[in-house]
Amino acid sequence: MGCRTKKFLVTGGAGFIGSAVVRKIIADTPHEVLVVDALTYSGNLDSLRPVATSPRYRFEEADILDRPKMDALIASVEPDTIMHLAAETHVDRSIDGPEAFVRTNVVGTFALLEAALKYWRGLDQGRRRTFRFHHVSTDEVFGSLGATGLFSEDHPYDPNSPYSASKAASDHFVRAWHHTYGLPTLITNCSNNYGPYHFPEKLIPLMILNALEGKPLPVYGRGENVRDWLFVVDHAQALLTVAEHGVAGESYNVGGRSELRNIDVVRRICALIDEFAPDARIGRRDRLISFVTDRPGHDLRYAIDASKIETQLGWCPQETVDSGLRKTVRWYLDNRDWWQRIRTGLYRGERLGMAV
User: Fold this and answer.
1) Cα 198 from Cα 209, distance rounded (Å)
2) Residue 243 sits in which domain range?
3) Nearest of 252, 352, 262, 355 to residue 312 by alpha carbon
4) Per DSSP, what are the bridge partners of residue 7?
5) pLDDT tens digits for range 235-291
6) pLDDT recorded at residue 2
7) Is residue 1 domain-resident?
8) What residues are annotated to the active site?
9) What pTM was estimated for this model as a whole?
């Protein structure tokens, strides 16, 4: 990683992946960061507390749909890189309320692209060459795989949920702004993230917290759906690597090379909770597993071919799914204050995505 100090503007930087990137930038680089986040339900300033006192960190509460505000913030920061993570992300929520996903993920990305293009056009030639608009996306845009195969960067798009459709649309807008206007863009499509500071509506943190509390562990269908699990700290390093060394106009798939069925993930979490926090009243946590009606349109399998980022940029994941899950469970046990504030207020673990 280069040693020249750069300025990053990170949208969605109070979210799960965004805050991991910001913490890594402040901890491991000399760079400066402005976090822009609307602080919707999943944005949490507690996730940025470890860097809040750094003179290289600043936060602005703002919505990417507010074009005048985005213009003003970009002009004030003069970023070298805009890393765009602001998004509605949960498939189940997209089933219940798709409009918010279209507004934020599609219209919001368009607004931010327009603001970035205006700013980029005003730079001198040297800074225009080094500027990057880095759009962070998902492997879900590619649809569902069968029992074999991997998603490569040139895999056809085939989104199946309102969430993945909105992210696919935003990917296409980013590519169009590069090819039509010359904006130097980067796209990364990642597999399923997990790790510290994960909002507890997602599978892994929800299972950890329910297991700790002796509550049922609801698994969709028979738990046969397969995901490629990526530890969020590994993902944060991948995003920094792409932002610093990626080729403008290219996309890079980021995966953990850790395929596992959902039911196997849940069983491993149960074993870790039993090891770290045994409770005679609850007993073995795997007895809490219950199979529930599957999510509408639930994709069977995702798996990433990450060879491009590995061979061209030298990134590879440092955690296996076993080491990452161990670190994740340990973090939730050691940081009860973080999730208990969420658990008693914003989200109590209720089932989402049942609108159909």
Assistant:
1) 11
2) 7-198+228-260+301-319
3) 252
4) 32
5) 999 999 999 999 999 999 999 999 999 999 999 999 999 999 999 999 999 999 999
6) 45
7) no
8) 139-140, 163
9) 0.93
Q: How far from chain centre, in Å, is Cα 127?
A: 28
Q: How far is CA 58 from CA 77, 113, 160, in A?
A: 10, 22, 37
Residue 281 in tokens = 């009243």
Structure token digits, residue 125: 């030639």
- Is residue 217 a part of any domain in this protein? no
What's the number of domains the chain is made of?
A: 1
Strands (E), 128-283: 132-138, 185-190, 192-194, 217-220, 226-231, 251-254, 259-261
- The amino acid sitting at 165 is A
Residue with tokens 């074993």: 271
Name the DSSP class of 347: -
In a domain, 222, yes or no: no
| Burial (Cβ within 10 Å: 0-12, 13-18, ≥19) of residue 279 | middle
**Which residue is it, tokens 């901890």?**
27
Q: How far apart are CA 150 and CA 304, in angstroms?
A: 5
Higher-scoring residue by pLDDT: 287, 94: 287
Here the CATH number for the domain that contains residue 187 is: 3.40.50.720
Instruction: State the Cα–Cα distance between residues 350 and 234, nearest whole angstrom.
Output: 29
* Strands 217-220 and 185-190, bridge-based pairing: unpaired
Could you tell me if residue 248 is inside a domain?
A: yes
Closest Cα partner for 106 from 153, 173, 201, 13?
A: 173
Residues in contact with 55: Cβ distance below 8 Å, sequence separation at least 6, in sequence order: none
In the beta sheet, which residues pair with residue 251? 187
Beta bridge partners of 252: 188
- Nearest to 318, CA basis, from 241, 212, 231, 250: 231
Q: Give one word for 257, left, alpha or beta, with left for phi > 0 and alpha for psi -120 to 50.
A: left
Phi and psi at residue 256, to the nearest 5°: -95, 0
**Strand order, beta sheet including 226-231:** 192-194, 226-231, 259-261
d(CA 165, CA 168): 5
Contact criterion met (CB below 8 Å) for 190 and 251: no
User: How many of the other CB atoms lie within 10 Å of CB of 101?
Assistant: 27
Q: Which residue has the tokens 């207020």?
A: 345
Which of 66, 23, 92, 174 is closest to 350 using CA atoms?
A: 92
